[in-house]
Amino acid sequence: MPTKRESGVMPDGHRPFHQDHQEPSLSTLLPFRKPSGGVVGIVQVLSSLLFKALVYIFLRWIPTSLASPVIPALYLVYLITSIYRDASIRAAVTSHLANSRAAAARDIQQLADKVEVTDKKIDSKSSDKAKSIENTPGTSNGTQQSTPKPATASYADVAKGAKSASGASTDKVTQSTPSTTTSAKHHDSRVHGFSIFEAIKALVFGSSTRSSRLNFYVILAHTLAFAVFLDSFLSPYLFPSHWEYNLAFARTGALGPTYAKIHVRYPPPELASPLAALNASTSPSLSFDNLAADTSLRNVAQSGIIDEPKPVELLVKYRRALNKTEEEDAFRKTARAYGKNYHASPENLWLNGPIITLRADNDWTATALVHDLWPSTTYEWALSQFVPEKMDLTDEVRIVEKFLVTDSISRRNFFTTWPDPRLSTYMQSKTLGSRKIAAGADSVVDEAEIHVEANPLEDPNHFTFASTSCVKPDFPYHPAQFWGWNWLLKLAGIGTESGGISQRNRIPGFDLMYQRAVARRQGSHPSLRFLLQLGDLIYADVPHYGGPETSAYRKLYRNLFASESFRKVFERIPVIGIYDDHEVVNNWSGKDENSEELEAFAPANTAWKEYIGDANPEPLEQGENYYTFQYGESAAFFVMDTRKHRTHHTAEDDEDKTMLGYRQKQDLYRWLAAVNDTVAFKFVVSSVPFNTLWGGELDVDGQKDSWAAYNTERLEIAEVLRYVPNTIVLSGDRHEFAAVSVHDTITEFSTSPLSMFYLPVRTLSQDHGDGKHGIDKLLKYLPDGNHKWSEFEVDARDPYQPVVRVSVQIDGQEAWKTTVIGKSLRKTQGGIGGLVRNLLESLGFKFDFFFKS
């Protein structure tokens, strides 16, 4: 029989169990080890790394068409492996927790078995200092005992509770005591928890962790990246502009001294909805030839539905925009120079120009030529239409003429015709004489004093234009333009300005060009007379190719012209150009390997003409796309078509391999002969580089897509150009800038992209192509920058030293400038006549018509 002990005192001098004993912590019983992922874990990490790398490259560097199958496949692989790994880790965690709790129960049972207990009650005074112990209810003598109060708990109750716990389930064990419950929760939190290092590691490598919550966030981050990729990939088809009824514009195309081209797109509003046809007055489909006899107006009003839209006819109206006295005086002087006695009136009447007929077959686009204009004159122009109008108090409908005004087409549009080339010699003698008088016979003329206005409107010997190529909206991709939260940014007033980061269908290159050429001019005319776009204005095959369908190409052009970035430029600066490869398909040739015509060219050419080609100067040959134009006697341009007639690049490079074709090359030679002695600078325009310095191991297209693959024909043309003074070649395509000298007499400026990627890998070298032999010499190489264009200020006011000042703009800043000094085309005059002429010019007299060179 056990001896009596004092209340609260254990044998052998031990302190009471309920005072000093601390139950074992569950978190120290079994350390958790995450199961090895094996092959699945390796695939998960590799797919995550490749997925994130390719998404970044696609959004910031190369939006290649290869991304469409690869990136979705990698995302799917990562998603499947992540779900599998998360499930396996979760099962391991559950098993670990069960084992840990079972081990804890065994420890408690072993501890309880070692305790000697009596039925004596623990003194309440001592028990007040102890922690309360919740005993598991049991039975005694077949009757249920009530749960004893903590103050009367006994050692027997503790032992019985431990024994019952050993046979109970794991869940009941964890509820046996408050301390046990706390330990279990702490252990669970440690098993499910994660550190900052683990979170960073999971985000970087995409690996699963023991935390289900962290795994969810990592998968969510990958899903968000995939959504951004889809947004960029599908962006041309996410805008309403790709629907044919949602785009309207009016712009000025090619200009000359006496003509202007007007380019219009205006779909009838009834295309948007059959309900719009009820308001037929807003969109008439009337013929100017038979307005009075048109009986369909009331039928349209009664039916409210137009089954098939009729052609829309718009009338171009124009008038001289002379608002200042000095402008009127200048106009009178010009009029007298033409031998006409004409006095301008501030109240100029509108003149009727050509009729533009818009049809569905042409995607509601058309071009009209306004001719018989005055040189160096600013004109205001607008579009008008005849609309039905209901008479008051009667049912009679009359036809009235109204100006077409929409959100996209302005009531007031302007263009300025080019100066008369016949005044070039007169203006040169005027400028030369005044400069000599101002400078004196022995002094040096300060070039800064001469260079005041780089783009005057009335001097045929002085103007500025720009060239560039390669345009893709929304590239490089900015996270702020992601569909969804860009609206939240707009509501917060972030990036809402024109060209702001939250705007969709944005082209930053055009935004920068507008700021420099228009906005900074503070109301003056633009600093550029025209923009020469050298191809890749759309990317039909990047990242998604819609097939050789005209409708697919038209969608991309509508998306381009719907961009507010582009609209700001083409409404103020005439844009002309030529196509390259991406307007059709990458690296295309007019003839394939079997010398057959490319199937995609016909539909692509139709769309290109509707939106670009028809607004260009007239082609030299019927049905062709290459053309020429001239600005005064200071510059002449030959814009080549380097795609339609080229032999496939895989053919042997001999005299039969051609890029231009026989007829175009002969037209080029005839043009060179015509302008050789009559124009100061000759600009030969090629969509691909004329030099051979691009190439290298990593440049796949540099040698096969440029003139380097057609070197036999290139050397033939270069041999002709080297004897034509003041020849400059303009090109693009390579997404870099380079200035190259060919034969020491031909200077090439290759500039791109305006809004596209550039490669961090250098692809141009003096050791490539004919650079090894010294024919092509590198002058300047500027590869970096997503937004590039070059500005050319042609200044032939001094006929003895014409110059072209070149300014290279990269990301909105001037990156490099140089001056090309041309040779004088005036023949040296000797004898008495030459001395008299020089004397009169030095005195400021303008008698060039007496002394013809």
Describe the structure.
It comes from Testicularia cyperi. This protein is of the alpha+beta class. The protein contains 21 helices and 23 strands. The chain has a domain of 223 residues. The strands form 5 sheets. Strands 14-15-16-17-19-18-20 form a 7-stranded mixed β-sheet, with helices on one face. A 6-stranded mixed β-sheet has the order 13-12-11-21-22-23, with no helix packed on it. Strand 21 and strand 22 form a beta hairpin. Helix 2 packs across helix 3, helix 2 runs parallel beside helix 9 and helix 3 runs antiparallel to helix 9.
How widely separated are the two ends?
Answer: 143 Å
**Biggest sheet, spatial arrangement of strands:** 14-15-16-17-19-18-20
Gyration radius, in Å:
41 Å
Count of β-strands: 23
How helical, in percent, are the residues?
A: 25-40%
Shape: globular
Low-pLDDT runs: 1-29, 129-156, 165-176, 274-298, 300-306, 324-328, 330-346, 436-445, 447-451, 847-853
> What is the makeup of the main sheet?
7 strands, mixed
The average pLDDT score comes to 80
